[in-house]
């Protein structure tokens, strides 16, 4: 089984009078690893909740594999959202939750789940309520990976883990994804460690869609231009400047947009150094600007 | 690693080309699989696959179904020839242009190049003799 | 793995199996305690003043009530997060509560029939308190107790769902949501009473279904 395509159409999610997601639309091709980026409270979790049939949209719709997922047995069985707080049987040992998920998910791999429990060094003999935040996150990772759902989403799951566990998670995810391709969405505001895993990024800010692009396009549109202030200003006029700082006579400017080759050659000739910008940096710059 | 502005798959392809030129990867030697490459460097497997596909298209690597990918016979020579061309055009030309702007004469440049080559030859001989002494 | 069975049937099966274990303990404890009380009263008063076992009915109503309530708040998020529908959850829960209600009704009737035999054998009168009447015919007793216990379990399910959906505001709906077991625990086993309890219980099941189909799944409470 391969991954599901995702289509979000004019999605609006409300909590009482608060609008969490405001008219957001984007499409994701099957079998990619996508980053859903946004600052805290930007509407990431609400968007994922609708995809996972945890709640219904106030307006608009989502289509998974071409079908509205809410209360659809086939689609829901193939969609998995791992929330940081963990949807598990808290007062019991992990075996109880594992068996619940095993009987529910047709794609579940019990042997893989066992391997993962060992890989993360989780205690099988104690109830989950005694676990630390990091251990709970790791158990969430186990459930998300072993489920092998055609649409698997992790909502900030790795934030609670310590660095070794996080890297273990990335490696296990990547190795398993290579063997069993599926559509994966990782949501976070901290992505520098994993930005090269993404095939595409969706950025939402203040409940609105800021950007939905292939990651290579996204990266190549950003650049840092460093050099004498006058020259830098000359080459960046007319470009979308997302960040700028001066270091005496030297200026460093981060731009975002279509950069044409001729302009870049001219900049180089004028003694301006051109460097890359990480997805994390671009994301921070873009959301800083837009939220004002 | 892979911090440049170019798409990552181009940087990966460049890195493999570099490894072949430097002799870290010999002719006929098997290269890492896409999956191994992706997990080792924590990059998207599709990105790694794109880099490998480009190298296969160029004839630098060849695919053996079910076994893996290998460095093509003659790949180092082919890469060296291609690099020589780009070296002169893309690296040396701007240097010469800059030299012209600064008023550095051709004879000054030649003297510099000769001295620097002599130094690097000397260090090369030294390392070999040291190596032989051990 | 009975993966061919529909989701609601599998859900009902799992919920019922989980409840039956705790129910076995419930009956063991009740019967042992009831027997002890009977023996003490026999020893102190020479004769128990009324059917001791008939008082188990309150536990039979409110114990399944609280279990059903807890099952909603502790497992509906896991159920949906595991990719199962709310429909299968609520149908499974209703069926499971019906099965549990019937099992409890049968157990209650059996215990009373046995107790009645012992009382009559001892020459005691198997009377009931005015608050806890006992039908003499075991068939009537069976229907009466089944409906009574069903009312408790299903009401627990509905109360659990209203609190899951509306939080503290669900308290306003309590007079309605706990109506069936309140009626059931107070009235005598006339045919009309049984009919009223059965009707309100059925309404509870329908309300639970309507409420659950669109219920938003909250973030589980952070415990750390």
Structure description:
The complex is a heterotrimer of chains A (292), B (134) and C (224). Chain A is elongated, with a radius of gyration of 21 Å. The longest helix of chain A is centred in the middle third of the chain and has 17 residues, at 163-179. Chain A has helices at residues 44-51, 73-77, 94-104, 110-119, 133-147, 163-179, 215-221, 229-236, 261-269, 279-290; strands at 6-15, 18-28, 33-37, 59-64, 79-83, 151-155, 183-188, 200-205, 208-214, 222-228, 240-247, 250-256, 273-275. Chain A has ten helices and 13 strands. In chain A, helix 4 (110-119) runs antiparallel to helix 5 (133-147). Chain A has two domains: 6-206, 3-Layer(aba) Sandwich (Rossmann fold), CATH 3.40.50; 218-290, 2-Layer Sandwich (Alpha-Beta Plaits). Chain B folds into two domains: 8-75, Winged helix-like DNA-binding domain superfamily/Winged helix DNA-binding domain (Arc Repressor Mutant, subunit A); 89-133. In chain B, 69% of the residues lie in helices and 7% in strands. Chain B has a three-stranded antiparallel β-sheet with strand order 1-3-2. The longest helix of chain B has 28 residues, at 75-102. Chain C is an all-alpha fold and 224 residues long. Chain C has one domain. In chain C, 74% of the residues lie in helices and 0% in strands. Chain C is built from seven helices and no strands. In chain C, helix 2 packs antiparallel against helix 3, helix 2 packs across helix 4 (138-166) and helix 4 (138-166) runs antiparallel to helix 6. Chains in contact: A-B, A-C. The interface between A and C is medium-sized, with 36 and 29 residues.
What features would you highlight for this structure?
B: 134 residues; mainly alpha; three-stranded antiparallel sheet; disordered C terminus; C: 224 residues; elongated
Layout of strands and helices, then pairs:
The complex is a heterotrimer of chains A (292), B (134) and C (224).
Chain A (H helix, E strand, L loop, with lengths): L5 E10 L2 E11 L4 E5 L6 H8 L7 E6 L8 H5 L1 E5 L10 H11 L5 H10 L13 H15 L3 E5 L7 H17 L3 E6 L11 E6 L2 E7 H7 E7 H8 L3 E8 L2 E7 L4 H9 L3 E3 L3 H12 L2
Helix pairs in contact in A: 4-5, 5-6
Chain B lengths: L7 H14 L8 E2 L2 H8 L3 H14 L2 E4 L3 E4 L3 H28 L3 H28 L1
Antiparallel strand pairs in B: 1-3, 2-3
Helix pairs in contact in B: 1-3, 2-3
Chain C lengths: L6 H39 L10 H26 L4 H37 L15 H29 L7 H4 L1 H8 L4 H22 L12
Helix pairs in contact in C: 1-3, 2-3, 2-4, 3-4, 3-7, 4-6, 4-7, 6-7
Pfam families (chain A): ABC_tran
Protein name (chain A): ABC transporter ATP-binding protein
Keywords (chain A): ATP-binding, Nucleotide-binding, Transport
